[in-house]
C-alpha cells in the first residue's frame, strides 16, 4: 500500500510539472514575454520550490514523530 501511495504521488507531480510546462510554452508570445522578459519566472519557480520542499520536510518529520508515538503506544 505504501508503494502505491509513493507511485501515485510521484505520477501526480510528474503530471503537474508537465502540465505547467505545457502552459508556459504556449503559442501566445505576449504571455510568454510577460514572465520571461525580466526573469520573473525563475523567481516564482524558486519560491514555489522552497515552499514545497519546506512542506515536504515538515510532513516527513511529522510522519516520523507519529510513527514513533505509535510504536511507543504498542509497547
Question: Would you write up a description of this structure?
Answer:
With 75 residues, the chain is mostly helical. It has helices at residues 2-24, 29-36, 40-74. The protein has 2 domains: 1-37; 39-75. The chain contains 3 helices and no strands. The longest helix has 35 residues, at 40-74. The mean pLDDT is 77.
Order of helices and strands: HHH
Unreliable stretches covering 5 or more consecutive residues:
none
How would you characterize the largest beta sheet? none
Return the average pLDDT rounded to an integer.
Answer: 77
Radius of gyration, whole Å: 19 Å
How many helices in DSSP terms?
3
Describe the oligomeric state of these chains in a short phrase: single chain
* Helix content, binned percent: over 70%
What proportion strand?
Answer: under 5%
SS-derived structural category:
mainly alpha
Span of the ends, CA to CA:
24 Å
Q: How many domains make up the 3D coordinates?
A: 2
Form type: elongated
Number of strands: 0
How is this fold's topology laid out?
Elements: H1 2-24, H2 29-36, H3 40-74
